[in-house]
Amino acid sequence: METLIIILSGVLVSVATYLILSRSLIRVILGTAILSHAAHLLIMTMGGLKDGSVPLLGEEASSYTDALPQALILTSIVISFAVTALFLVLAYRTYTEVGTDNLHALRGFKDE
Amino acid sequence: MFIVNLAIIIPFLAAVLIPLLNKRFSGIHIGWFVLLVPAALFIALIRYIPSIADGETYSHTINWIPSYGINFTTYLDGLSMIFALLITGIGSLVILYSIYYLSPKESLSHFYVYLLLFMGAMLGVVFSDNLMVLYVFWELTSISSFLLIAFWYHRKRSRQGAQKSLLITVTGGFSMFIGFIFLYVMTDTLSIREVVSTISSYTDHSLFLPAMLLILLGAFTKSAQFPFHIWLPDAMEAPTPVSAYLHSATMVKAGIYLVARFTPVFGGDQVWFWLVSGVGLLTLFWGSFNAVRQIDLKALLAYSTISQLGMIMSMFGIGSAALHFGYSTESVVYTQATFAALFHLVNHSTFKGALFMVVGIVDHEVGTRDIRRLGGLMALMPATFTIALIGSFSMAGLPPFNGFLSKEMFFTAALNISQLDIFSLSTWGVLFPVIAWTGSVFTFVYCMIIVFKPFLGSYHEEKLERPPHGAPTGMLIAPGILAMLVVGIFFFPNLVGNYLIRPAMSSVFPVLASAAELGQPISAWHGFIPELWMTIGVVVAGVFLYIFHRYWKVVYKLFPEKWTFNELYTFSLTQLEGRSTTITNGYMTGFLRDYMVYIFLFFIAAVGGMLFFTDAFSFDTSGNASISKYEWIISFVMMAAAIAILFAKSRLTAILLNGVLGFSIAAFFVVFRAPDLALTQLVVESVTTVLFLVCYYFLPEWKKEDAPRKTKNNNLIISVSVGAVFVLVGLAVQNGKLFETISGYFENAYELAGGRNIVNAILGDFRAFDTMLEVVVLLIAGIGVYTLIKLKARKEDETFED
Question: What are the NADH-Ubiquinone oxidoreductase (complex I) chain 5 N-terminal domain coordinates in residue numbering (chain B) (predicted)?
């Protein structure tokens, strides 16, 4: 299971990297969103998967799954959501002000 | 003795006070107040001459950074006495001269603040016993000289000259600093006196030679030695009092001082001997040779300063040979070169200061320094002419002026050294008197040019900018005093010899001082010895060359203009600028993609390379949890969705595929027994998708990537590599658990925090600080979104058009 998830997040990282390297601003934002998915999956995997019960003390289980990565991911989800939202609005403003979302055309000036 | 520390501090204090005084007493020329400082210091120092001559030295320490051994330690001995007297004495005369030279319309307080800064720094250089403090003052002289050269900062040439001198002297100063650190590493002390007393046990140290070379580089750049002399002629853009003070009498002698001070440290070495005397002789020849071709009087004097400094430097080099022999009595002969060097140092300061002031007077009264436009000024300025005559003839080495004595001694030293049988001198030693003599001939020629071209010949009023008139008396006082000194030292040389130079000799040769009599009585007449015939030869050849000057001037045309060191300097500066611009423009393209490529490539190289070279990768599936068919399905759906985003034709597809990813992760969180995460992920993914959809209407059309195929292929390779490195690191870490998780502690959530939900207890209790700041992040993002949408400053001018 762990190996599968790591390979899955590796695929997500590759896709995210490819999107970040592209010239369209919206693709770059999408890439960062996917990169955060991959990061969350990796954190989860590092804590160990499926060994133990849901981390609720009422469950009367013999062992619980690792709760710390879950707390970390929860924080991370919120932060990446905030950043994505800000990026989106930034892209929207950039597009309305400049009229393009092509990063190649967004370069300040050409001196060549 | 505290007064020496005070002597360094007083000019700095005065520099602080000058702007205040200038405002308070605007009626009086501020220079008069400044004049008090060096004059008082000069008188205070003169009082110590008798006790210094008796062999006493004074030192005083004020703690600065004792834990590093860096203390403000001053040391007054014969050597620093000579320099300090020159600095304060010539300083007083230059300030007196500048009072008449600079008009009150100039920004005088700036001028005198810089000058006082320089004076304090220079006193600090010659008095400091601590290497680090010496370096501090050394750089201060560079900086204040920079400020003074660019005093008329609105002129382009002033700024260029200042920049050039700063670049060259600071480069040398910095290398000297490294040399000092090497010395400290070797001897474990920063005190020059302690270095001198212990250096003999470190002469085989591997840092001995590098330290020597680096310190010499500092000395050579500061004292304008070949090939670092190029900054000095350009520094002539400074006001003439500055040129007279800094660039003839004091700052350029800081390098000489350094060589003299470090002769007891490095002097016995062959490399030191050849470098100091060889570079000195080369500078002597090159400077005098180039001085003859100059048409600007100040440039001519600059090259003559270079040449004279080379002469002093070479004499210090020759004198250092004496240290090779240690105590033996025969070595005393060679120490006479050092005696001559110190003597000429004093003489040069007197006559060169006077000559610069003379040129300043000519410039001031006539409006030009170009010798092609000057002529016949003798009748108009008889006093100025007299001083110029005295200064030039002294520089040429003619009796009855002090330059004659030092030149004779220089020839003696050169002749003596050519017969010495160490350092392979038997082969090359004959070059010393030959080059010395040739250099002196050229010196004679340019000295004649200084006297005869502007003052004799025919007078052309039409070439001058304004009708000339005699110099004001006030301007003549300072050069007059210097000229009197020039003559006075010739008639009473032993006064200088006994009271100033003999004590300095024991500073340069501390080991020999106890064993041998270092001073010698200076006499103007030795009888018909080879030196006299050499001088007569110089005069004959010099007169011949001067008369037929116009016929052999073609020699200078033999060297193309582009093969000078100035051109080399300019070329290397422009090349340096051009190349670094090209390189910077080459990788700072301004495109986000390029920078991301650098980051990703660095990640691949550093992390992947580390994995590869340290053999850290391990792969083991034994600890893995089992996979059910649902998890297989979700995984493959996610992979397919992720890859499909790359091929999405519309942005709606892309957004929905991103939603698929998010909701699949939520499903995974369910599988992984993380209910809170699943909830949050569902909500956040819904909101994000909604946000994307809201923006959908406003965002640009989802176009196909227009990048060239090659870029796309590169992107593909990079992204696959990044993913691969990521997977490898993940697997390696997954299989290399070092210790048990600490999460068992959080299972006490009910006892410690009163909550049954462990994740919530961590978020709200154990690690609530994270949560607080996460909320702040959300808040900031919210404010950011709001302001980005609401605030539209640039719309203003658009509404104005409506």
Answer: 64-112
d(CA B385, CA B362): 10
Q: Where are the domains of chain A?
A: 2-49+65-104
Residues B355, B393 share a domain: yes
- Domain boundary among the residues B502, B535, B551 is at B551
B638 vs A: CB within 8 A:
yes
User: Where a domain ends, among B500, B535, B551?
Assistant: B551
For residue A109, the model assigns a pLDDT of 45
Over residues B118-130, mean pLDDT? 92
Strand partners of residue B61: B73
**What average pLDDT does the segment B174-189 reach?**
92
Nearest partner of B285 among B433, B408, B440, judged by Cα: B440
Phi then psi for A50, rounded to 5 degrees? 65, 10
Of B621, B680, B741, the CB nearest to A3: B621
Into which CATH architecture does domain A2-49+65-104 fall? Orthogonal Bundle (1.10)
Q: Which of A41-55, B154-168, B218-232, B630-644 has the lowest mean pLDDT?
A: A41-55
Helices B131-149 and B208-222: crossing angle in degrees, nearest 10, is: 30
Evaluate whether residue B797 is within a structural domain. no
Give the domain range for residue B770.
754-787
What secondary structure does DSSP assign to B488-529, as a single string?
A: HHHHSHHHHIIIIIHHHHHHH-HHHHTTS-------S---S-
Residue B334 is assigned to a structural domain of this protein: yes
Is residue B71 within a helix (H) or strand (E), and if so which, with residue range? strand B70-76
| Closest chain A CA to residue B772 | A75
Contact B228, B221 (CB under 8 A): yes
CA angle at B786 for the pair B781 and B789, rounded to the nearest 5°: 125
Locate B365 and state its tokens.
């009264």
Per-residue three-class SS string for chain A = CHHHHHHHHHHHHHHHHHHHCCCEHHHHHHHHHHHHHHHHHHHHHHCCCCCCECCEHHHCCCCECCHHHHHHHHHHHHHHHHHHHHHHHHHHHHHHHHCCCECCCCCCCCCC
pLDDT grade for B578, boundaries at 50, 70 and 90: very high
Domain assignment present for residue B646? The answer is: yes
- Structure confidence by residue, pLDDT tens digits, B406-415: 888 888 888 8
Per-residue pLDDT reduced to its tens digit, A81-112:
999 999 888 888 888 877 777 777 777 644 43
In B, residues 674-703, which contact A (CB 8 Å cutoff)?
674-677, 680-681, 684, 687-688, 691-692, 695, 698-700, 702-703
Q: Do residue B226 and residue B289 come from a single domain?
A: no
* CB distance B284 to B312 below 8 Å: no
Would you say residue B306 lies in a domain? yes
Residues 6 or more apart in contact with residue B655 via CB below 8 angstroms: B689, B692, B693, B696
Helix B530-547 and helix B431-455, axial crossing angle in degrees, nearest 10: 40
Q: Which of B638, B759, B767 sits opposite A55 (nearest CB)?
A: B759
Q: Is B795 helix (H, G, I), strand (E, B) or coil?
A: helix
Phi/psi-derived region of residue B774, left when phi > 0, alpha when psi is between -120 and 50, beta in every other case: alpha
pLDDT > 80? residue B522: no
Average pLDDT over residues B514-519: 57
- The reply to whether B758 and B664 lie within a common domain is no
Q: Which of residues 570-599 of B touch A (CB under 8 A)?
A: 590-593, 596-597
Residues 6 or more apart in contact with residue B704 via CB below 8 angstroms: none
Q: What is the pLDDT, as a whole number, of residue B802?
A: 40
Condensed to tens digits (0 to 9), the pLDDT of residues A15-61 reads 999 999 988 888 898 899 999 999 999 998 888 776 778 888 877 77
Q: Considering its fold, how many domains does chain B have in total?
A: 4
Is there a single domain that holds both residue B648 and residue B688?
yes
